[in-house]
Amino acid sequence: MNLKYKSKYKKIKRQIKQLVFENASLCDEVSQIQLDLKIAREERRFLIKRLMRHEGFDETTDKVADATSTTSQKLNNVPKKRGPKKRVTLNYGSNVDDIEKLKLMCEDKVDVDAQGKPKMPINLSNVLIHSLGEILPSNPNFHNSNWIYPVGYVATRIYAHPKDPQRKCVFTCKILNNAGYPQFQIIPDNDLDSVFFGETADICHRTLLETLRRSLSEGTRVPMNVQGEKFFGLSNSIVQSLLRLDPSFKLCTNFKEFLNKNESPGQTNIPEEKDPTMSFEALSLITMSAYHTMPEIKDEPPDELFDLN
Questions:
Q1: Does residue 193 contact residue 184 with C-beta atoms inside 8 Å?
Q2: What are the φ/ψ torsions at residue 239 (nearest 5 degrees)?
Q3: Of 10, 101, 110, 185, which has the fewest CB atoms closer than 10 Å, so is most exposed?
């Protein structure tokens, strides 16, 4: 009888010792995977910074632009010799176009080439415009009384990643022609498997906010302040002024006037940098204390367990 229990005891002892070694190896493997993930995150952050610098989101370029603008202002303040006044002539047809052109040139927010066309990309602090697209006045599906949706319009914006709200993500906003109807797309980090698309910009923005809500913890709620055109950058005054300069703009018969920020129905007057549905910094204030991405790993087993005889 004693031999029977002694054999069982030795068998259980061997199993426990094997489980201890297996647990230790798993802890080492998990720690190595965490280290690899940390390195991958650093590399990804470095690549995103390079992409932002390449697309115009660079602090040094902004400082250089500010310095050049101040020097140009000083040069403009130098009194010039009096002479006969010259009339300003532009290549655009009507007086409204001339006013819009002069407004853009005076604000120094859009660089124009020798042919009078705006240089791309256009950095509007929150949105980077890569292409203004083409206005289709003959198709009423691409414009309504308050908005114009040019085909081929491309813009990028930095916002929270839908699967990891604590991480920044570059969203590419596009307007395409899908069999005569506009198709709006929001692509995070050029991931074609996670595209938010729909027939309107509000559908894309609502789907993105709903995905963020599911990724966050239960105690954190993102306000469903759906503003699709604003997320795409179509509500920006500079973009609207550039669209007015297009000769096809006047041929849009259904269009009346762009909606102002205070005239949007059902929308609160919140600055874009403080709106958690538009700004990553505003959203991070909500998610900072409620969302955790790194799993907790238990401590390794003590060395005393390895001293089993």
A1: no
A2: -65, -45
A3: 10
